[in-house]
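protien #1 (seq + structre)
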Amino acid sequence: MTVDTLPGAGAAGSLGAEVVAFLNGKLQSGIDLVLDVIKFENVLQGADLIITGEGRIDSQTVHGKAPVGVPKRAKLAGSVPVIAISGSIREGYEAVFDHGIDAVFSVVNRVVTLEDTLKDGAINI
């Protein structure tokens, strides 16, 4: 088995593949583990809206990252709308709409460099 055929094994410099190969480990989705630990289904009780986020939402977000793990679980529990807030929105972000996210917003109110965003943090809140 190679890193290419073992989902999640390429993350963190192939550490997952090494744990499986040499330590008889098992890979598990990080977001699923966190949602299980916090008993996410219980947290959802009575929720009218779920907000998730990531530093950048783009075409890679749908490949096992937290922002799509949250709506996947939320939709199983009902039809609570899910919005994602991000530091930046990049090409391919629309793919998240096929994974349960209903809307995407950036915390930055204009097109700006990362350097200027960090300098002007107070106005981006």
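ok now protien #2
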Amino acid sequence: MEHYTPKNFLLTDSVGFALTKARNLVASEMDVALKDLDITSPQMGILLSIRLGNATTPFELSKLLGIDTGLMTRLLDKLEDKGLVERSRSVDDRRVVNLTLTKEGQAIAAQIPQIAPKVLNARLRKFTKAEFEELRRLLNKFIGE
């Protein structure tokens, strides 16, 4: 089924516009909440992904988080400059860069679960449990999972 046509398409009424606006709202609120940790919401995603073992290379992080490799490199440079992430070449394949959290990176990542849920729960406060589950279901369907 085609939901949009050239006649009925309006940018501000599109799903893409709403998703982008929602993403930007959450990212902005998360950035404010993470300020004391001196990290941003994209950096939070990287730290948590490494901490949980969801990704251990820049390429895996790029795929998981939907961030292009150029931006990923810049984000990792900043995290490395802050002493939160270390890069090392794989002994098996020198083309592969492995990522690990430093001791300070582990400490910062361990604090995120105390902060992020508050931000998300504030944005979701008007949703019932059923609406929240339906939102998650629909977003997963939209992204193809």
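The chain has a mean pLDDT of 95.
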